[in-house]
Amino acid sequence: MLPLTLLNTSQGHPMLVELKSGETLNGHLVNCDAWMNLTLKEVVQTNSDGTRFFRLPECYVRGNNIKYLRVPDEVLDIAREKNQQQREEQRKSNQPQRGGYNRQYSSSGQRGGYNRNRGGGNFGRGGGQFQRGGRGY
Amino acid sequence: MSALAPYVGKAVVVITSDGRLFTGILQGYDQTTNIILESAKERVITPDAPTEVLDLGLYLLRGESVALCGLVDDEIDSQIEWDKVRGLRLGETKKLGR
């Protein structure tokens, strides 16, 4: 799984961001992008010594400043489920239409049996149109 | 070009640019070496005290902070008594100018 995919899935979840400066930001992820820029809300900012705390209702983090992010464990499971769902949807849209008669015939009225009429009707092969039964193409 | 693909799903050790040592299961990576570590643990090795292990959970490490990512040999790792290990603390990496 791509790290940025995990990050996108964790939108809405609480997380801890440690910056290169050693400061930490604890808050909920509002949004993120391909450069790991983040917007967080309800943030507690702690300095690198752990001695000072600030509360920020919102903040923007430029991605290049990030050292690492700590994310709740359940986000990994949520991301995996999403991946699976996406794969299933792709499979469904790639598969040709099967089962029963292919109703995308034109009015040439051709079904199983011989397809004597070439050139007319929907004879697509691949791309979702298959003729069931029949020996011709 | 070598990539981290063979390490995905396996236990790895990551050393970051600030000299910290993490272990965990590599769940993913990308071209900038951003890393997803599951069940991440930080091992703090010091010269005087027993090795500390901090449980951290799910970690997303930014590629810029990753210095090293190595495959853990479970056989060898299980034979090491980590609380007895002592060592000097690692320093930070230095960025050399162009």
Explain this structure:
The complex is a heterodimer of chains A (137) and B (98). Chain A is an alpha+beta fold and 137 residues long. Chain A has a domain at 3-92: SH3 type barrels (Roll). Helix content of chain A is 20%, strand content 28%. Chain A has two helices and five strands, in the order αβββββα. Chain A has helices at 3-9, 74-94, and strands at residues 14-19, 24-32, 38-46, 53-61, 66-71. Chain A has a five-stranded antiparallel sheet, with no helix packed on it. In chain A, strand 3 (38-46) and strand 4 form a beta hairpin. By secondary structure, chain B is mainly beta. Chain B has one domain: SH3 type barrels (Roll). Chain B is built from one helix and five strands, in the order E-E-E-E-E-H. Chain B has one helix at residues 74-79, and strands spanning 11-16, 21-29, 35-44, 52-61, 66-71. Chain B has a five-stranded antiparallel sheet, with no helix packed on it. In chain B, strand 3 (35-44) and strand 4 form a beta hairpin. Chain B is globular and about 35 Å long. Chains A and B meet through helix 1 and strand 5 of A and strand 2, strand 3 and strand 4 of B.
